[in-house]
Design brief:
The protein is α+β, with helices and mostly antiparallel strands and 400 residues long. The chain has 14 helices and 14 strands. It has four domains: 70 residues; 50 residues, no CATH class; 173 residues, 2-Layer Sandwich (Nucleotidyltransferase, domain 5), CATH 3.30.420.10; 61 residues, no CATH class. The strands form four sheets. A five-stranded mixed β-sheet has the order 3-2-1-4-7. The radius of gyration is 24 Å and the shape is globular. 34% of the residues are buried.
């Protein structure tokens, strides 16, 4: 797992958000890293020549490689000395939390007086991951925010629809998008809850809304979240790549905390009861056409019980103008892989073979392959690029 120490997409996301003007706290949340790590990435990038008003075009493979070289983590286990010192006192910390109901700041002070000096954030992560801290947080009302900024998304099980490909009825899920400010919504129906399905739903949503929201708020769905850490959830590489391509940020809800995204949670029963229940659909495309019409008319023109506005009209009047521009072309969904370099100096990606430099024999490399190009990284550094070849073919550079 040492290969996973360096995440190229995380560095790119940190730099992208920082160049957009976000503060380090927001940058860290959007990229799924802690603030200290975000600061190290930004400082290293500035030392390599990154200028805040220089635009997104500064982010390239060479810059990311220089950042990796400067801040490459040295902890193979993923935790440092501070974490190891807390392991000795794990039971004591758990008792303070569960039996004495002490605040974490109080626990931090007690540990310091015992000679266990650790950063507060490390203690917070340790307590949340190993001692149950934060599992029963009080809920608060979520503010609507500014128009065009936030959109909450969630999967919901609808029912059965015939699938002509299999000749049987299959469970269909609805990926529901709800604009936090106007409450206008879009529904994407799918048989699968995969990254490809989520991306397809997002692309359809941007067409429906006529633009892209600046921040998406999903739950901890596996296509988006690789590690649902209560403090710093880790995004999947594929999702980070898509978010960077479309220019939005991601602010996931906490684990098992549906009230973090109440705008979309409240419409699940509405979609299921008002649209899906009692209807007969020929197939999935038929259902999708009808649900888009339903979103634009029945759901979009109802008088909302909280805002006292018709969501579609409220969206068109106040919110749509604040969205990011809609995509001009199709997103080329890439493949991400970590193949091992064989003795013949080739790696296999999507059943195609690609050469790499000889000093990497026996090592695992990180690969991003879209329909046109295959990029090979080793410890965050771009070491090779090949044109994509068909399955069963190979691309060999004699220089390797």
């Amino acid at each position: 797992m040492a290969f996973r120490e360096v995440r190229v997409n995380e560095i790119q996301e940190v730099l992208r958000c920082w160049l957009a003007g976000d503060g380090l706290r927001t940058v860290a949340e959007r990229a799924g890293v802690d603030r200290k790590t975000a600061r190290r990435y930004v400082d290293a990038a500035q030392a390599a020549g990154l200028v805040r008003d220089g635009g997104q075009g500064q982010i390239c493979d060479e810059l990311v490689g220089q950042v990796v070289a400067a801040v490459r983590p040295a902890r193979a286990g993923g935790h440092g000395v501070a974490w190891e010192s807390l392991l000795v006192h794990e039971q004591r910390i758990q008792d303070w939390i569960e039996k004495e109901d002490l605040q974490l700041t109080n626990i931090h002070g007690k540990l310091t007086r015992l000679g266990v000096v650790v950063p507060y954030r490390t203690l917070h992560r340790f307590a949340a991951e190993r001692c149950g801290f934060g599992r029963r947080q009080p809920t608060v009302r979520v503010a609507d925010g500014e128009p065009g900024v936030e959109c909450q998304i969630d999967f919901a099980r609808m029912g059965l629809i015939a699938d002509p490909e299999t000749g049987r009825r299959r469970v269909v899920h609805a990926l529901i998008f709800t604009a936090v400010y106007s409450r206008h919504m879009f529904v994407w129906l799918t048989f699968r809850q995969t990254l490809d399905a989520v991306i397809a739903g997002c692309e359809a949503a941007w067409g429906f809304f006529g633009g892209i929201f600046k921040v998406l708020i999903p739950d901890n769905m596996s296509p988006v979240i690789a590690d649902a850490d209560p403090v710093n959830p880790t995004f999947t590489v594929g999702w980070l790549d898509y978010a960077q391509a479309r220019g939005f940020g991601t602010d996931p809800a906490r684990v098992r905390s549906p009230k973090d995204k109440p705008r979309v949670e409240r419409v699940v029963q509405y979609v299921r009861g008002n649209f899906f229940a009692g209807e007969a659909f020929t197939d999935l495309p038929d259902a999708q056409r009808r649900v888009e019409h339903w979103c634009a008319t029945t759901a979009g023109l109802r008088l909302h019980g909280t805002t006292y506005q018709r969501p579609a009209e409220h969206f068109a009047t106040v919110e749509q103008q604040h969205l990011l521009p809609a995509p001009n072309g199709r997103y080329d969904v890439p493949i991400f892989a970590t193949p091992k370099v064989a003795r013949d100096l080739h790696i296999e990606v999507a059943r195609g073979l690609y050469s790499v430099p000889g000093e990497l024999i026996g090592q695992r490399v990180e690969v991003r392959a879209d329909s046109r190009l295959v990029k090979v990284f080793s410890r965050g550094q771009l070491v090779k690029a090949h044109p994509r070849v068909a399955a069963g073919s190979r691309s060999t550079d004699p220089g390797d």
